[in-house]
Design brief:
By secondary structure, this protein is mostly helical. The protein has a domain of about 70 residues. It contains three helices and two strands, in the order ααββα. It is globular, with a radius of gyration of 16 Å.
Length: about 100
């Protein structure tokens, strides 16, 4: 099966994203976003992300104290910096955004 095929990508995506751990982390992120919406920190479609200061994947807590509101650009560049530290077979290095 070629690596660019939809079946290959779906299979590899499912190896992690359909696991119990991934579902729990996704639920925690959704809960944090809902809490920020309710408190008025973010609005729907405002281009902001609710960020966990200490990432859930790195053992961060799910508490509201561990969250903050960041612009989408700064939050995604934070993730790219974390992802570049990972080294495993077949992982492509994420592109970091340089600040001017």
């Amino acid at each position: 099966m070629p690596k660019n095929s939809k079946e290959y990508n779906k299979k590899n995506y499912g190896k992690y994203h359909w696991t119990v751990k991934a579902k729990k982390e996704r639920a925690a992120r959704n809960k944090a976003r809902a809490a920020a919406l309710k408190s008025g920190k973010v609005k729907r479609g405002d281009g902001k992300d609710v960020d966990h200061k200490n990432p859930l994947s790195k053992g961060g807590s799910k508490s509201i104290k561990n969250t903050r509101v960041l612009s989408r650009k700064s939050n995604r560049s934070k993730w790219a910096a974390i992802a570049n530290k990972r080294k495993w077979k077949g992982y492509k290095k994420a592109k970091t955004i340089k600040k001017k």
